[in-house]
Amino acid sequence: MARQKRGSPILEKALRRIGGMRWINQTLDFGNGLNLTEYDSRIQSLQTELSNYNNLLSTLDEMAARIAQSEEELSSYSEKMLMSVATNYGKDSVQYTQAGGKLRKSSSRRSKKSEPSSEGTVTALNGANNNGKQNSVVLP
User: Fold this and answer.
1) Of 25, 31, 53, 135, which is the most exposed, with the fewest CB atoms less than 10 Å away?
2) Across-strand partners of 121?
3) Where is the composition biased (Basic residues) (predicted)?
């Protein structure tokens, strides 16, 4: 999933303000470094930094996709290598386990639980009066 690019509400606000201030006077200067030239320079600086940041995010997304693809390819190759060991030595071999394979578990069947006795207790809700009380019934 691509990383979300960053915007800047502060930058948008500054762009609107400088537009309004230019409408007032193209060379607005209040002294002490407060002028449109410096304001524009700071706006351009933030725009450049923001653009660089978003470009880096795009580069990171591209790199992450390449890494994911490389991992997928390596996983497939690893599986093929393990299957080749299994083909040559068998899945029950020491070599197979040394290569990272797992031995098959023996297929011993579990004994079934004893059959429930023919006598049992059944709990049912009393539906006639719908009061939610439980009644127990013993079956022969």
Assistant:
1) 31
2) 138
3) 102-112
